[in-house]
Amino acid sequence: MDRDGGVGLAEPWARPAPVGRQARAVFDRAAKLVAMAEAVTADHARARAEVRTALAPLRQARVRRELETIPVTRLKDVTEGRLRLGAMELAGYDSVAKVLAARSYDLRQVPGIGAQSADQAIAAARQIAAAVEEHVAVRIGAEDRADPAATALVVALNRLVNAGPEVPRAADTAARVAAELTPLLAEAHPAGARLRLLVAGRRGRQRAQDAVRRIEDLLAEHTADGTPLLLTQASTDLLRPAARADEAWLDFEVRAAEYGVLLAEIAELAPDIDASEGFLPTSVSERVRAQQLDDTHRRVSLRGYQAFGARFALAQKRVVIGDEMGLGKTIQAIAALAHLRAEGSSHFLVVCPASVLVNWSREIESRSALDAYRLHGNHRGAALREWTRDGGVGVTTFDALVSLDVPDDVPLGMLVVDEAHYVKNPDTRRSQAVARWTARTDRVLFLTGTPMENHVEEFRNLVQHLQPGLVPHIRQSDAVAGSQAFRRAVAPAYLRRNQQDVLTELPELAQSDEWEEFSRADLAAYRSAVAAGNFMAMRRAAYAVPARSAKLQRLRELVAEAAENDLKVVVFSFFRDVLSSVRLVLGPSVHGPLTGAVPATERQRIVDAFAAAPGHAVLLSQIQAGGTGLNMQAASVVILCEPQVKPTLEAQAIGRAHRMGQIRHVRVHRLLIADSVDQRMLDILGTKQVLFDAYARRSDLAESTPDAVDISEQSLARQIVAEEQTRLSLTKGEG
Q1: Is the pLDDT of residue 356 over 70?
Q2: Is 366 within 8 Å of 344 (Cβ atoms)?
Q3: Which of 160, 217, 240, 664 is deepest in the core (most CB within 10 A)?
């Protein structure tokens, strides 16, 4: 008891702690939050366990198939050659799978095989099986729809995918809430009743009162951070009824990349560490792995190699990420920006070609909680003022950067330069503008899909912007020695991973929307089509003037990047005249186009010639003609010139490349124009129910004749034309 006979007051420098009824009210709030956290943890663990349960038979089947291809002679590698494998092979045990399935008694029936040899052989087979199981990847494609085991896995994954990208953050937050509050509630317990507090002794009272104050502080922090809402939403999303099999498969086909990220994480495949870390020296990779990565402002899950890339940018500060196309360089950059925002940085700047400016803005706002401002075009001045005042991510073009006027006292947390090979020539205005901005910040991230080991002098010029002291050490001989030797030599400033090195798991298919803005010529053609009420002309207005087409500019860039990486490309459009425009800008060396007017035998000859072409090649095809009956698995990059009225037609065309026999991961790029018929179509067709209806309830006519026009297409066209005429304040006949 204190000298004054009371129950103990807080020290004079500390605020009074609630006791009795007030303390119990605090405990009740904390207990409710802990209960919510424990529910989220349990629901999340249950959903992940369902995936692991569904995955197990598929992985076991894959392991069996792998072991069937491993000859029994490989057992020598494990037993140091002590087994008489020739006798076992002659007796029919010609694969590791057969030895694994045998009993010791069975093997002892083989002449010359005793009990010890039989046991050693089975133990060696188990050791190989364990190694295979550690690395084997389960692949699922649309062709697996009839497989009940594959369907069970897709349905289990669907729950977590549709719960959204906030669920991992909610699970982490739930674990932290429980870890913080549970022990504090136990310590604070005496404060719930004055008598208990009285008999707790001076130290016990002090601990209890300190714990109550800490609980109050934590509750205030979590309330301010929106933790109760985050946990409530996560529980609601995780407890939704399981999707129907057909609906889950449709969602899988639309969002294969998200399913793949989740499956790779839950499967816990042992990655090729060296490859996923770009063959960096140990000293660099250890520093990168030690770098924390805050996800508070991020709204997308990362693959392991993507998280490493974001950490590399943060730990090394001034670098080039040169991952092969399709590996998510944009997402890695956004993850780094989100981390820096959590650390207190306020202003960031992204410089990119005009063709991807809209895409960058959309990706930033959909993949993070950061605001994006387009510092380009007619509203550039207003956007610049808002960005300067409020912070966020300014997105500008190389040309606009030259005259971008930002006060020197605006702090720049990071500069990101996309398609950084655009500044390979130090004498150009754009390179000089980038150099000025790199001098304004400690953190600079260059992105390029061009393999720098093929362009050593260009790489030296890029590194001059970043780490000038490294330039004298960049030698042509390192590149000649091979890509791995080159990457190790330039490790402080360069990280590159290839698809075949890191994408060992589902999906083989990754899709991205490439958002552009109309050029002035495009917009004039579009307004005329809208005024005329011509739906089909609206859909292809972005190609009306090929020399000034924003979509064609982006298409050229995608094809150029594919060429740098020696990848084959197939370009699909519904319209023949669009394919003619594509051919005009790409040149006569492209294959095709495949159209409905080309006889079937000639179509196959064109596809065969495309497949046989060494290295990079481009094939043009009408989506109706290329979407049925032809296999285009030589292509690993698919470009869709416009969205299709029927999602099945689009999926069918993609399936020509993404199918059995495809040896590379397939990257699909859909070219879209913001605030146009493209966006209206996606808004209408983008809901899951409409997609499901279009997929599962299509008519026999539509199935047998993919280009048939059904009533839903006519109603869709009327709705979109009317909406666009209203939005643009146009009436029929008005240009």
Answers
A1: yes
A2: no
A3: 160
Q: Are the beta carbons of 559 and 636 closer than 8 angstroms?
A: no
Strand order in the sheet with 494-495: 372-374, 392-397, 347-352, 414-417, 444-447, 318-321, 494-495
The alpha carbon torsion through 312, 315, 316, 322 (nearest 10 deg) reads 10
What value does the mean pLDDT of the chain take?
83
**Same domain, yes or no, for 97 and 245?**
yes
Look up residue 636 and give its two tokens: 């690993």
CA distance 159 to 174: 19
- Torsion sign across C-alpha atoms 182, 184, 187, 191: negative
Q: Looking at 502, 529, 563, which one is the last position of a domain?
A: 502
* CATH number of the domain residue 657 falls in: 3.40.50.300
Among the listed residues 344, 334, 348, the one whose alpha carbon sits nearest the alpha carbon of residue 301: 334
Is the pTM for the entire model greater than 0.85?
no
Residue 371: which of 395, 402, 393 has the closest Cα?
393
Count of beta carbons in the 10 Å neighbourhood of residue 189: 17
Alpha helices in 164-317 (DSSP H): 166-188, 194-199, 201-225, 227-238, 245-254, 256-267, 273-276, 282-290, 304-316
For residue 735, being part of any structural domain is answered with no
593's tokens: 């186009």
Measured in whole angstroms, how far is the alpha carbon of residue 99 from the centre of its chain?
41
Residue identified by tokens 């022990």 is 183
Distance in angstroms (rounded) separating the CA atoms of residues 135 and 307: 20
Q: Are residues 352 and 338 in the same domain?
A: yes
Query: How far apart, in whole angstroms, are the C-alpha atoms of residue 572 and residue 625?
Result: 9
Q: How many structural domains is the chain composed of?
A: 3
Domain boundary among 202, 235, 270: 270
Measured CA to CA, the distance from residue 640 to residue 682 in angstroms comes to: 14
Instruction: State whether residue 618 is helix, strand or coil.
Output: strand
Question: Using CA atoms, how far apart are residues 542 and 358, in angstroms rounded to an integer?
Answer: 15
Distances (CA, A) of 96 to 92, 116, 182: 11, 18, 51
Alpha-carbon distances of 102 from 22, 83, 91, 117, 648, rounded to whole Å: 69, 16, 12, 13, 47
Residues 463 and 533 in one domain: no
Residues 579 and 639 reside in one and the same domain:
yes
507 prior amide bond cis, ω within 30: yes
Alpha carbon of residue 3 to chain centroid: 64
Cα angle 154, 155, 157 (rounded to 5 degrees) comes to 65
Nearest to 64 by CA among 88, 99, 106, 92: 99
CB atoms within 10 A of CB 35: 12
Rounded to 10 degrees, what is the CA torsion of 500, 503, 505, 506? -110
Which region among 15-19, 166-170, 212-216 has the lowest average model confidence (pLDDT)? Answer: 15-19
Q: Domain span at residue 207? A: 1-270
What the block records as the tokens of 256 is 């294969």
Check: CB of residue 321 under 8 Å from CB of residue 444. Answer: no
Whether 519 is covered by a domain: the verdict is yes
Given a cut of 60, is residue 712 above it in pLDDT?
no
In one-letter notation, the amino acid at residue 553 is Q
Q: What is the mean pLDDT of residues 448-458?
A: 80
Does residue 517 lie within any of the structural domains?
A: yes
Please say whether the dihedral angle defined by the alpha carbons of residues 661, 611, 641 and 534, taken in this order, is positive or negative.
negative
Amino acid at 605: R
Separation between Cα atoms, residue 598 and residue 589, nearest integer Å = 18
**Tens of pLDDT, residues 508-565:** 567 888 999 999 999 999 999 999 999 999 999 999 999 999 999 999 999 999 999 8
Check whether residue 426 and residue 457 sit in a common domain: yes
Q: What mean pLDDT is predicted for residues 407-428?
A: 93
